[in-house]
Amino acid sequence: MSDVRPAPGTEMIFQWRKWDGSPHWRHECVYLGADEWGDWLGQPAGWHSARPGASFVTAGPNVTLVPRQTDYALTVNRDHPKAMRIYIDIGWDVRWSDDPLLAVGIDMDLDVVRVDGDRGIWIDDRDEWEEHSAQYGYPAEIMTRLEALALDLEQRVRTQTAPFDDATGDLWLDRLEALHLAPRLDS
Question: Is the pTM for the entire model greater than 0.90?
Answer without folding.
Answer: yes
